[in-house]
Each structure stands twice: as structure tokens, then as C-alpha cells.
Specification:
By secondary structure, this protein is of the alpha+beta class. The protein is 16% helix and 35% strand. Bound molecules: N-[(3-hydroxypyridin-2-yl)carbonyl]glycine (MD6) and fe (iii) ion (FE).
Length: 210
């Protein structure tokens, strides 16, 4: 959504059934200061799995509810457990970006109320997983990649098959839903391009309706 023209001509590619890719759709110079303000209130932190293992990447949230993982399990909560305060509000620019991207993939209305923010350093990975903690699986997830590029892996209904791999660059947006809503996916960050502003750091925003 760099400007209106981008929207009209936006090249939307269906890279897997019901997984849509919008290359260079998000404007990182607009988003990065908003993310900085969020992380000043709710810093990135490493959460732990219910089994006690530390997750490989650090995370935070903005919105009405935020995704957490701890000894009690994976879930969405209304307060940041680190500060016991509400998560920072979701900036209007985030909501508009997510809604416009979702609409391009024929998901409307989409009213995201949770945004999970992942932070990767070079070499960090997100293990193949499904996103299934959201109660209404008819709602899509909109994912925004910023900073260093990463190799995104799209599996399928199981993670035993060989994944489709797609390199995601700063500004790339994906929309997932319908038949793809519960497919396995993961992220690797070895083969990366440093970003002028973020260097060897990658930030991913995932917008959800919870
Ligand atoms: C990431 N993304 O790109 C992690 N999940 O860092 C996800 O886990 C994800 O991109 C659900 C839908 C889209 C995604
Ligand atoms: Fe995911």
C-alpha cells in the first residue's frame, strides 16, 4: 500500500492454494517507527513452550489481545505478562494495511484485533507449525515481512512433505486463509540480504482476528 496506484495494480500471486503473496506491498519506513514505539512499551522477549523450551525467536504483540506461550500453554491474553499492562494499541496504519491486503485476496471485512510481532536475527528459525489458537478459522492471517530477507517454507496438511520455499523480502505481504488456514509453515534465515535500516534483523507482523 505504498500508494493508491500500488493497490490498483498490485500484483497478487497465489503461490499455493489460498496463500497469496503481494510483493513489496508494505512501506517499511512508515512501519518501523510504529514498531519501535510498540517495543518501547512491550519489548521483544523470548517465550517458553509449555514443555519449558525457549522459543528460537523473540516476540511481542500489539492489539486488544496478544499471543503468548508459557507453562500454561499457547493462547491469547489481554495483558502483557512482562508488565501486567494492556498490550500497546494497534496503530491505525497497521489495521489499514492488513485490511487492504486481505481485501485483495477477497477477505473482507477483516477486522484484526491481534498483531504478533516476531523478531529474527541471522540464523534464527521458526520451526514448522500451524496457527490454530484463533477461534474463528474462517478469518485469514495477514503477514508482513520487514528487514532482512528470509526463506519461508510452505508445507501442507502435514509437515512430512517437502515444502514450497519462497524468499520473502522487506515489504512483502502474504494473506492466508480458507483451505490454507491450517497448513504447516516455517521460516529460515540463513541465506539473507542485510537491510539498509534493520541490517541482519527481520521483523514479521502477523495480523489476526481473535
Ligand atoms: C514469519 N509467519 O514470517 C512467521 N503464520 O516470521 C508465520 O508464522 C505465519 O506468515 C501464519 C500465517 C502467515 C505467516
Ligand atoms: Fe504461523
Amino acid at each position: 500500500m505504498k500508494d493508491l496506484f500500488t493497490d490498483i495494480t498490485a500484483a497478487i500471486e497465489e503461490i499455493h492454494p489460498d496463500v497469496y503473496l503481494l510483493r513489496d506491498y508494505a512501506d517499511s519506513p512508515t512501519l518501523l517507527p510504529l514498531i519501535k514505539a510498540i517495543t518501547e512499551q512491550a519489548p521483544f522477549r523470548f517465550m517458553h513452550t509449555p514443555g519449558g523450551k525457549r522459543l528460537h525467536i523473540s516476540m511481542t504483540n500489539c492489539g486488544d489481545v496478544g499471543w503468548i506461550s508459557d507453562a500454561q500453554g499457547y493462547r491469547y491474553v489481554g495483558t502483557d505478562p512482562t508488565s501486567n499492562r494492556p498490550w500497546p494499541a494497534m496503530p491505525q496504519a497497521f489495521i489499514e494495511l492488513a485490511q487492504r491486503a486481505a481485501a485483495l485476496a477477497q477477505f473482507h471485512p477483516f477486522q484484526p484485533n491481534a498483531c504478533l510481532i516476531n523478531h529474527y536475527r541471522m540464523g534464527q528459525e521458526l520451526t514448522a507449525h500451524q496457527d490454530k489458537n484463533e477461534p474463528d478459522l474462517s478469518q485469514p492471517i495477514v503477514s508482513v515481512s520487514l528487514g532482512m530477507s528470509a526463506r519461508f517454507q510452505v508445507y501442507g496438511k502435514s509437515r512430512s512433505q517437502r515444502p514450497l520455499e519462497v524468499e520473502l523480502y522487506d515489504g512483502d505481504v502474504m494473506v492466508w486463509g480458507r483451505s490454507a488456514r491450517l497448513i504447516y509453515h516455517g521460516v529460515k534465515t540463513q541465506r539473507s540480504l542485510p537491510h539498509p535500516e534493520l541490517g541482519e534483523h527481520r521483523i514479521n507482523l502477523t495480523f489476526r482476528r481473535v
